[in-house]
Write a structure and sequence with these properties.
alpha+beta; SH3 type barrels; 2 domains; two-stranded antiparallel ribbon; signal; SH3-like_bac-type; extended; SH3b domain-containing protein
């Protein structure tokens, strides 16, 4: 009985920690390149200013392939998400944390890791359709040893066994 009560209290504690972490949605970021600060999350939107590479921004939210940011000069707008790198973040909050480990012990499930595709939101991924012609085209690019040798011969590329051996060993 005491064990069940302790487990329940621990579960409540871990759940409240996870909710608190999710509420801290503003994340520190740094721009990877010079980029335009747009009024709206679309290319056709008015450009408010140009931000410089390595400038720090606070990311407030995401809409498709755009982040709404607040600059050090208190300008708010939208930048392409591929131009932002988060600083000091080792993993996304809520993934494979203490709560997941605890759940794996109490619910007989194991934690899983997942990835997302930057620039696509959940709705876009749900409505995506496979293009089998493009998949066949991709498969046609597959190489083999004979093609590689023919390519090297045509380009007068010579093998340097000493260098390639050293590279593959490191």
């Amino acid at each position: 009985m005491k064990t069940k009560i302790l487990m329940l209290l621990a579960c409540i504690l871990f759940s409240s920690l996870n909710v608190a972490a999710e509420q801290q949605s503003v994340k520190a970021g740094k721009l990877t390149t010079n980029t335009d600060l747009h009024k709206q999350p679309k290319y056709q939107s008015d450009v408010l200013t140009q931000l410089l590479a390595n400038e720090n921004v606070n990311v407030a939210r995401r809409h498709r392939a755009w982040y709404q940011v607040l600059t050090a000069q208190q300008q708010r707008g939208w930048v392409k998400m591929l131009n932002v790198r988060f600083v000091g973040v080792m993993k996304r909050q809520g993934e494979l944390g203490v709560k997941s480990v605890f759940d794996s012990l109490t619910k007989q499930v194991t934690p899983t890791a997942s990835t997302g595709i930057r620039g696509f939101d959940e709705e876009a991924l749900k409505t995506a359709k496979a293009d089998l012609e493009q998949l066949d085209l991709l498969a046609s690019y597959q190489g083999n040893a004979k093609r590689a040798k023919d390519f090297a011969r045509a380009g007068k590329i010579k093998s340097n066994l000493a260098i390639s051996t050293a590279v593959t060993q490191n």
